[in-house]
Amino acid sequence: KHRERYNGWNEKTLHGHCLRSLPPEADSVQTFRWLSKGNLNPSIEAILVAAQDQALNTKAHAKNILKNTRDGQCRLCGQHEETVSHLVAGCPILANAKYKERHNEVAKIVHWSLCKKYNIETVLQWWKHVPEAVTENNEVKILWDFSIRTDSKIQANKPDLVVVDKTNKTLLIIDIACPLDINIGNKEQEKILKYQELKTELQRLWKLKGKVVPVVIGALGAVTKNHSKYVQSIHETIRTEDLQKVTLLGTSKILREVLSLPD
Q1: What angle do CA 70, 17, 48 make, to 5 degrees?
Q2: pLDDT reading at 177 higher than 80
Q3: b/e per residue, 37-55, with b = 16+ CB within 10 A?
Q4: In Å, how far are 15, 55, 61 from 67, measured between CA atoms?
Q5: Residue 95: how many CA atoms within 13 Å on its side-chain side?
Q6: Are 155 and 194 in contact (CB under 8 A)?
Q7: Disulfide-capable partner of 143 in 162, 183, 205, 256 (CB 3.0 to 4.6 Å)?
């Protein structure tokens, strides 16, 4: 029955778009976990589902579908066609502000969870948590957005989080991304490769066993089949639906502000 419903959804011309656009690496069950577990406001959920269907009134939609304008360029950057995909993860004007804000909220959940794991005093709600550049106790040292000095010059030396477990002599290099859903698999591999040199150097300098852990949530909620494995290696209490929820709240905020959608 589940497979029949899935196939019926996939075959719909409009509403099947989001399924057909998922990359082969996507976990088709976990990707939509936010719909049943995210507890999002119905109005926000409606915006996100419309965004997945590419059915929001962007300038590209007005030009190509409604045929009521000849101008389909992004109202912010003017460089690219204003599609939903462009607005949620491709506009250079939004990159250093809105995309970064969304990214940092995801990173904040991870940092808060690590503080809970290692018995570091913190607030009860993750959204009130304010990460410090260096957080440390007898068990762990956690670096947040910290440039790491090494003997040899390494260009990629500032991952989102570095976790040094003093007891187990292990090192986690954690980096977070919220790309287009179609790019989630490539982004995971990109993060792993990007920090291999730093991992090797820190293993040598600090005498630890290291691992690079990508935390990648698509701008519209997609996750890969490897996602659960990665987040569980950080801490078993991190929930996919929480990471999706904060990402999707950031995405819906961007769409509401740019397209003047109602709250």
Answers
A1: 80
A2: yes
A3: ebebeeebbebbeebbebe
A4: 21, 14, 8
A5: 8
A6: no
A7: 162
Locus of tokens 């550049």: 133
What is the rounded end-to-end Cα distance, in angstroms, of the chain?
36
Query: How many beta carbons lie within 10 A of that of residue 256, not counting itself?
Result: 15
- pLDDT band at residue 140 under the 50/70/90 scheme: very high
Compute how many other C-beta atoms are within 10 angstroms of the C-beta atom of residue 246: 23
Q: Which helix (H) or strand (E) holds 60?
A: helix 59-61
Per-residue pLDDT band at 38 (split at 50, 70, 90): confident
Helix (H/G/I), strand (E/B), else coil: 143: strand
Cβ neighbours for 204, distance < 8 A, ≥ 6 positions apart: none
At 70, is the secondary structure helix, strand, or coil? coil
